[in-house]
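Q: Could you write out the predicted structure for this multi-component system? I'm mainly interested in how the pieces pack against one another.
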Amino acid sequence: RKEVEQDPGPFNVPEGATVAFNCTYSNSASQSFFWYRQDCRKEPKLLMSVYSSGNEDGRFTAQLNRASQYISLLIRDSKLSDSATYLCVVSASGGSYIPTFGRGTSLIVHP
Amino acid sequence: ETGVTQTPRHLVMGMTNKKSLKCEQHLGHNAMYWYKQSAKKPLELMFVYSLEERVENNSVPSRFSPECPNSSHLFLHLHTLQPEDSALYLCASSQDVAGNTGELFFGEGSRLTVL
């Protein structure tokens, strides 16, 4: 089983739609969770951290389910500019923070 | 404007060549990373340096040799590569490796093609 698994997509949605991605992780000792965004031929950039209580940033909502070992990202009112690959990142507990990336989920928002 | 700069942005080399990738961070971070990104595969961690000491070597072949002369600079020396090593090599930095600060700051990457 892969450490961090994501559906690669692509998710093809119209503007204004709501779309959700899930990411599962295998290491139950994982402590830190993040979503990164990577535009085509660009470097990944942090989109948001995922807290145990869930968190929201504008149109983006991230949630963590420790019992089922997955995190989710919900995007409301999709914009054309949301088209990108969304990377799930997990790091285990312990003294070092060494992040493990999922392969990413591709989102295409069309007019 | 990224705080992590990588050079060269593109590199084409033969299997017998020796070349180096360079990364410089202007963020005052203590940790630096090399990742490999191949098509349709997750980012693969290669090396991690904390305060110029290597703290992680993720079973990378010896044809890749990292060097961290100071906390702002990271090199990846390449020697006798294979065509399957063609990929985007991303450098990143973070404040520390200890704790769970989370954010990695990436450079724009060096796209390597091995002929």
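A: Regarding packing and overall arrangement: Chain B touches chain A at residues 2, 35, 40-43, 45, 48, 50, 55-56, 90, 94, 96-104, 106-109 (CB under 8 Å).
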